[in-house]
Amino acid sequence: MTKKPNNTIITASASFVSTPPRKANLVLKSIVGQDPQNAIEVLQFVPNRASKFVIKLLKQALGNASDQYKLTSSDLVVFQAYATKAGSSRRMRYAGRGRTQPYFKTTSHMTVVLKAKLTPTPQKPVSKPKKTVSKRTTTKKVNTKTKIK
Question: Side-chain half-sphere of 141: how many Cα atoms within 13 Å?
């Protein structure tokens, strides 16, 4: 059973991705408003590590769209893309004098929302009434400030 693609929203999410949300959002915000297939092609050349996870996520969203709604990538647009903070794992770094210093590896939850492009309904052209152009007649100005002697 296929659903109607009117205002269709397709989501795909990935949990506990090993990239901080601040760095992931840089990549995710750059693809909003693009065609998903075009975004995948662009992201293949982005040197950021998060782009590999975003490519996987976009492919997952395209698979969801084709499976559930029978939509192709040309019918869709990236509506939203964001990353939120997931859990942090505590790690230690060796420091001087036999001590350790803690640091945290943060992970993120990524979400991509695709939306079906709305096809505009053809409208009848409205006929506007024609404007009538009136011809201006030039009138001769009479000088009334002249003195009569």
Answer: 4
Domains along the chain with CATH numbers: 9-94+102-116 (3.90.470.10)
State the CB neighbour count (10 A cutoff) for residue 83.
Answer: 27
Distances (CA, A) of 52 to 18, 99, 147: 11, 36, 92
**Alpha carbon distance 108, 22 (integer Å):** 9
Dump pLDDT digits (tens) for 5-32: 467 899 999 999 999 999 999 999 999 9
pTM of the model: 0.73
Asked if 54 and 43 touch (Cβ cutoff 8 Å), the reply is yes
Q: pLDDT by residue (tens digit) across 56-82?
A: 999 999 999 999 999 999 999 999 999
Single out the residue of 16, 55, 53 nearest to residue 39, CA to CA.
55
Q: Where are the alpha helices (DSSP H) in the chain?
A: 21-29, 36-43, 50-68
The Cα–Cα gap between 82 and 13 comes to 10
Q: Write b or e for each residue in 55-68: b if 16 or more Cβ atoms lie within 10 A of its Cβ, otherwise e.
A: bebbebbbebbeee
